[in-house]
Design goal:
Length: 632
């Protein structure tokens, strides 16, 4: 079949399907594109003029569209992808951050950045940088460290094996992440006699990896000796769709479970074995039980520092049983490894542990009950002139200054409680960075499966709104809410325009606390003067806050927008938003310093100064040395 490379790519993608547990899915239903001189011809021409069923979405920022594609794949539990097409140069470079985000989170993301001419005849072409020591280097080489697979198509003959290799990686539960296929702009238009089988419908099975019998026996032996084990449900459990199998295991063994950010909403929070989020952004219930647990059972988690509280949380654990499709992750924490699909493995472990019951007799239920009381207190926290005296002493005037500039009377935790109460229980919430991931992992409970799309592997500011768009495209029947701080909003919100353009409804909950509140807490909590973390004149403390009417900016884009400064205004805005058919933004003015405090629930290692100049810095250094020595 003599066709161009661009058309071959489009036809190939249009015929890729996957099967999982007997169900068949079209793997590629659409693509995102920001067209430029390196892709509007070639692949762009094929999308415009060729015969195919792919939907084409016009991105507004290459990073944003790639974040949307990542969220789309995650919300589809990695059964579908949305490839992204960009020009060369800055268009390609804009996707590097998104590629890293997808790779860290093990989410399939296929990127087709344009590239310089394979022939080099017109070099240097527009947007090409010239590296004198190596003329083969282009902008796209920046993808190599942040992708699972990289290729560059210098000849049409290279295309088919490159695409096949991409599918191998994208559909492998262990390797899933970003894949980059760089496309020189002259090659995209070249014609070649491609084999017809390349464009036939191809259904690829996503297999469940079977654990070895030896590893199962060793894991069961460790668990049988445990009195107070704890399960950690990670993202691998979600993508395995192992929720029901895990619930049966919990019931049979009387073992409680905690969640990572990626694992949240895999199992309903109404489970009697539910503790909530674990680690630095976790709550007191999960972390109290974790500190006393003698065996930790990790289900599809990579044990990041936020999950382990920088390896200080599991201080009484004698052993770890790590169930993961990735041996790399299964080997962490000196674990007893079981390399296999979480659902398959947990089903087999249930059979092997017949008759085993933990020694818990109400401890984890009591811990959960105590946390619920604390959560109720946080949800009901109200503004007063002398609230949070210890924070006022550290940052005099912050709350009063912001209240004076904006009229804000809402605490962040109360705002979250109002949102949780007033939106559909099956709504999908999307977040990524700042203080909201901590507040939400602690406070946001849900019985609705896969309703929590938190990007916290890379904690990438700017993911939130684009991620909400991708989640809505994946599940058009569910309401989707982006939980975003004002700092992230200012970094990247352009895909709101794409949502308006496509007639897709996303609900943007914009928490405006006058800057980078989360990092300001870290900065000042370690004895550093406030600088460039608050939205003040010259970014210095004790200068006026710069008030922004975010609702007005959203209206300019075509969204329905509201401003909420009080609990009553927020409730009214949420009710009004439900009646809208198009995208909505609520500009929520929340008082600085009123998020949950991570230091209360877990310790996190940061790079504090070893030459302290004040009491706060000295206390931070003492805390660091104490934790390192105590939990070597």
């Amino acid at each position: 079949m003599k066709i161009s490379v661009g058309e071959a790519i489009v036809r190939y993608l249009d015929n890729q399907y996957v099967s999982f547990d007997g169900a068949e899915y079209k793997f590629v239903e659409g693509v995102f594109a920001v067209f430029g001189h390196g892709c509007v011809l070639g692949v762009g021409e094929a999308l415009a003029n060729g015969k195919h069923s792919l939907k084409v979405y016009q991105g507004k920022n290459e990073q944003g569209m790639a974040h949307a594609a990542t969220a789309y794949a995650k919300q589809s539990n990695r059964r579908k992808i949305m490839p992204c097409i960009s020009s060369i140069g800055p268009g390609a470079a804009n996707m590097v951050t998104a590629a890293a985000t997808a790779m860290v989170n093990n989410i399939p993301l296929l990127l087709f950045p344009g590239d310089t001419f394979a022939t080099r005849r017109p070099d240097p072409v527009l947007q090409q940088f010239e590296q004198p020591h190596d003329l083969t280097i282009t902008t796209n080489d920046a993808f190599k460290p942040v992708t699972r697979a990289f290729d560059r198509i210098y000849r049409p003959e290279m295309l088919y094996p490159a695409l096949e290799n991409a599918m191998r990686v994208l559909l492998d539960p262990e390797l899933a992440g970003a894949v980059c296929i760089a496309l020189p702009q002259d090659v995209q238009g070249e014609v070649w006699d491609f084999p017809e089988y390349m464009f036939e419908k191809r259904v690829r099975a996503i297999d469940r990896r079977e654990p070895s019998e030896d590893e199962l026996i060793r894991a069961a032996a460790v668990i049988e000796k445990a009195k107070y084990p704890l399960i950690i449900v990670g993202g691998g459990a979600r993508y395995s769709e192992a929720g029901r199998a895990i619930e049966e295991f919990l019931s049979e063994t009387n073992i409680p479970f905690a969640e990572t950010q990626a694992g949240k909403s895999t199992i309903p929070c109404s489970s009697p074995y539910y503790l909530g989020g674990i680690g630095v952004t976790g709550n007191s219930a999960a972390n109290t039980v974790a500190a006393n647990a003698d065996v930790i059972i990790g289900l599809g988690t990579r044990f990041s520092d936020f999950t382990t509280s920088s390896k200080t949380l599991f201080r009484n654990a004698k052993a770890f049983v790590n169930i993961n499709v990735s041996r790399y992750h299964a080997l962490k924490m000196r674990g007893v490894t079981v390399v296999g699909d979480v659902k398959k493995t947990i089903e087999k472990l249930t059979a092997k542990l017949q008759g085993y019951r933990s020694a818990y007799a109400g401890e984890f239920a009591a811990a959960r009950k105590e946390w619920v009381r604390e959560a109720d207190r946080l949800f009901s926290s109200a503004y007063s002139k002398d609230m949070i005296p210890e924070i006022k002493a550290m940052t005099p005037g912050t709350i009063e200054d912001f209240n004076a500039a904006t009229g804000a009377e809402l605490t962040q935790t109360r705002a979250l409680g109002i949102i949780r109460k007033n939106i559909p229980m099956d709504a999908v919430v999307v977040a990524a960075a700042g203080s909201l991931p901590g507040c939400m992992q602690r406070l946001w409970d849900t019985d609705s499966l896969y309703s929590y799309n938190m990007e916290y592997g890379y904690s990438c500011m700017g993911y939130e709104i684009a991620g909400a768009l991708g989640s809505k495209l994946a599940e058009p029947g569910r309401e989707v809410y982006a939980m975003v701080g004002d700092g992230s909003y200012l970094m990247l919100h352009s895909e709101m325009v794409t949502a308006v353009q496509e007639g897709v409804k996303i609900n943007v909950m914009l928490f405006d606390n006058g800057g980078f509140g989360c990092i300001n807490n870290l900065q000042m909590g370690k004895g550093v003067n406030s600088l460039a973390t608050e939205l003040r004149y010259r970014a210095e403390a004790d200068t006026p806050f710069v008030p922004i009417d975010f609702a007005m900016s959203a209206r300019a884009y075509g969204l329905k927008a509201f401003t909420a400064r009080t609990p009553e205004e927020l409730e009214a805005a949420l009710e009004a938003a439900k009646k809208e058919t198009g995208s909505v933004l609520i500009d929520i003015k929340v008082l600085p310093k009123t998020m949950t405090d991570g230091c209360v629930y877990g310790w996190w290692q940061t790079g504090v100064t070893h030459d302290p100049g004040n009491e706060t810095q000295r206390a931070a250094l003492d805390e660091l040395e104490e934790n390192i020595e105590k939990f070597k």
